[in-house]
Each structure stands twice: as structure tokens, then as C-alpha cells.
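[recover] target loaded
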């Protein structure tokens, strides 16, 4: 007499073990890639902050008018600003065609990265503006744009990913 065929009702211990080992190998290769993406995103966000600061500094040196980057850690936005004439109002910086430049909302461009802290040239934290004078040296100005003094301390913008952008008080060097 021939025995009836046996049907398997599950996985063997070897099959389950191999599956777990393969899943571990795949996870070990994917996780470093994810952290690399986050690090790259943070570095790109810091580069964007440096670029905006360089635009403001260059515009101030080119036009002789105070220009800066308005930084708001609460809303995580950056906005290029300028003062066209001495004693005038703080206005959004315009592009070559006269249109106001848009604010940069960091988390909308660099997911997971924002601005955690801003310190101006007087050492004051919170929202404020990184101002540059006609010579490219950082200045301290009040909310209306009136000159208070030259920057005594370095300007610092800290990102949530750990990146720090510094503008040196003495030279205006952007690091």
C-alpha cells in the first residue's frame, strides 16, 4: 500500500532562519544610506543659508546700501532684506527685474531640517537680521533698520541637523 502524500502546513525552521538573516542583511545596508541622506540634507540646508548670506553681503558691497538676511527660528524662514536709503524702511530685497524675492521656508525645501537658533552680531538670540554694511562687515541694527554699531560678536545660525553657519564679526567671512 502506498502512503498518501503529506502536505506542509508552514515553514521549516531553516526557511524562517534564512529569511530573518536576509532581512537583517538588507536592513544593515539600507540604514547607513538613510543617515547619509539626512546628513546630505542638513549640509545642503547650511549651504543655502551661506548662499543667502553671501547674496546679502555682495549686494551691500555692490550698492553701498545695508542688506541682510532676516532669520526667524520660530517659523524657520529666511528673507533677504535691504534699506534703499539711509533712514529708510527695511524692505524685501528685489531681484534684477524689481520683483521681491521670496522668503525661504527651510523645512519646505529641506525636509526635516530647520533653523533652531539665531544669534546676531550683538549676541542677542531669537529672531533677527544678519546685516552687512557697504564694506561687507556685519552690523547691528534695530528693527527699523537704524544702525546701532558694528558687530561685536560672530553671527551664528544653528540648524536642527547640527550644522552651524557663522559670519565672522571682524571680516564678514561666511563659514
Amino acid at each position: 500500500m502506498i502512503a498518501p502524500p503529506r502536505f506542509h502546513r508552514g515553514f521549516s525552521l531553516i526557511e524562517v532562519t534564512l529569511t530573518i538573516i536576509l532581512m537583517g542583511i538588507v536592513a544593515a545596508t539600507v540604514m547607513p544610506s538613510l543617515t547619509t541622506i539626512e546628513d546630505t540634507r542638513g549640509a545642503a540646508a547650511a549651504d543655502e543659508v551661506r548662499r543667502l548670506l553671501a547674496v546679502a553681503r555682495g549686494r551691500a558691497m555692490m550698492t553701498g546700501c545695508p542688506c541682510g538676511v532676516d532669520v526667524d527660528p520660530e517659523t524657520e524662514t529666511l528673507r533677504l532684506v535691504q534699506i534703499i536709503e539711509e533712514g529708510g524702511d527695511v524692505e524685501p530685497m528685489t531681484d534684477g527685474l524689481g520683483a521681491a524675492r521670496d522668503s525661504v521656508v527651510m523645512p519646505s525645501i529641506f525636509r526635516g531640517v530647520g533653523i533652531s537658533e539665531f544669534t546676531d552680531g550683538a549676541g542677542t538670540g531669537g529672531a533677527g537680521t544678519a546685516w552687512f554694511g557697504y564694506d561687507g562687515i556685519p552690523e547691528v541694527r534695530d528693527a527699523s533698520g537704524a544702525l546701532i554699531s558694528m558687530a561685536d560678536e560672530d553671527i551664528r545660525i544653528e540648524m536642527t541637523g547640527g550644522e552651524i553657519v557663522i559670519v565672522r564679526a571682524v571680516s564678514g567671512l561666511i563659514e
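[recover] notes: The two ends are 86 Å apart (CA to CA).
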